[in-house]
Amino acid sequence: MTELINQIKAQVAAISADIDKVDNKAARARVRKATLVLEKLGKAYRKESVK
Known about the structure:
Elements: H1 2-18, H2 25-50
Helix pairs in contact: 1-2
C-alpha cells in the first residue's frame, strides 16, 4: 500500500511539473499520459483501501 501511495505522489509531481506549460505541446502530451496512469493507480488504491 505504501508503494502505491508513493507511485501516486510521483505521478502528481510529474503532472505538477508540466501542467503550467500550456504552450508546450510535448508537456501537454506528458500531462495527458500521466493522468491516465494516475487513473489506473487510483483504481488500484481504491481496491486496496477496501480490503
